[in-house]
């Protein structure tokens, strides 16, 4: 069966399907973040706490090699816990996830000031992107995409449903949280606003704030990007499932002008 990673004892070997957009021999960001959140989710389930915030720092590019995970409990409180998961390539730290977990209460207050938003179009009603856009990376070729607003191949805000169709780790089902995290990495791509023949852009970090747990394998990304000074930018996105919104995403962006051919 096709999978992004193969388990090898307590380690994980990246397959060719983990290849990213800048090089087929380098990990896709979605693979990096999803492998770390898999460990966060395991610890959350064990403790009975809810995942509330996930901040990923992507420090170094990583090849398609064997990785391990190191976990530390930074804060172990009765109402809140902070967990750190580090992704290791041998002795080199590739990235880090800092996760906030909170105790689950019995009820939530009503919000009399919120507006009832119209429901989003279902993924079954959306349209797939052009074939060339689906070939952005080897990883992306295993992601189903259904656009309900905008277009991936044209600059501007957009809204797209996404679902990873192969296991992140061989032999395991992809959970809704894992689907949400792997989809969130595409927020800046969904909302790209520049001609990619003239500009490159990266997000060296990504943060998700969850106000409820996702409940579906299809994740809707509705995102937009703003450009600031000196190559800085910010992508913000709302993640939804079929029941409605469940998280906000923020990505710090860096733009760089391509050299003339």
Describe this structure in words.
This protein has helices at residues 29-47, 131-134, 176-184, 187-190, and strands spanning 5-8, 11-14, 50-58, 66-76, 80-89, 92-102, 143-149, 158-164, 199-202, 205-210, 219-227, 232-241, 244-257. It is built from 4 helices and 13 strands. α1 (29-47) packs antiparallel against α3 (176-184). The mean pLDDT is 90. The protein is mostly beta strands and 261 residues long. It is globular, with a radius of gyration of 18 Å. Strands 1, 2, 3, 4, 5, 6, 7, 8, 9, 10, 11, 12 and 13 form a 13-stranded antiparallel β-sheet that branches. The chain is 14% helix and 41% strand.
Question: Topology of this protein?
Answer:
Layout: E1 5-8, E2 11-14, H1 29-47, E3 50-58, E4 66-76, E5 80-89, E6 92-102, H2 131-134, E7 143-149, E8 158-164, H3 176-184, H4 187-190, E9 199-202, E10 205-210, E11 219-227, E12 232-241, E13 244-257
Antiparallel strand pairs: 1-2, 2-4, 3-6, 3-10, 4-5, 5-6, 7-8, 8-11, 9-13, 10-13, 11-12, 12-13
Summarize the structure.
The protein is mainly β and 261 residues long. The chain has helices at residues 29-47, 131-134, 176-184, 187-190; strands spanning 5-8, 11-14, 50-58, 66-76, 80-89, 92-102, 143-149, 158-164, 199-202, 205-210, 219-227, 232-241, 244-257.
Strand proportion, as a percent range, falls in: 35-45%
Q: State the end-to-end distance.
A: 41 Å
Structural class of the secondary elements? mainly beta
Give the strand tally: 13
Helix content: 10-25%
- How many helices? 4
Mean pLDDT: 90
